[in-house]
Give the backbone structure.
Amino acid sequence: MRYKIVLRQSEEGFSVSCPALPGCWSQGATEQEAIENIKDAIQEYLAAIAEFKKLI
């Protein structure tokens, strides 16, 4: 599945978020690093949701 991301330049580098997944964000020193980091964050976010669903 593909998710839209929002990439913004900040004083420290780049911040990136995934609007479809509230609270899912990351950052990186470069655009590419930020994009790689948000990919990891999205995977971890979805894994946490899947684990939570097993508990309910």
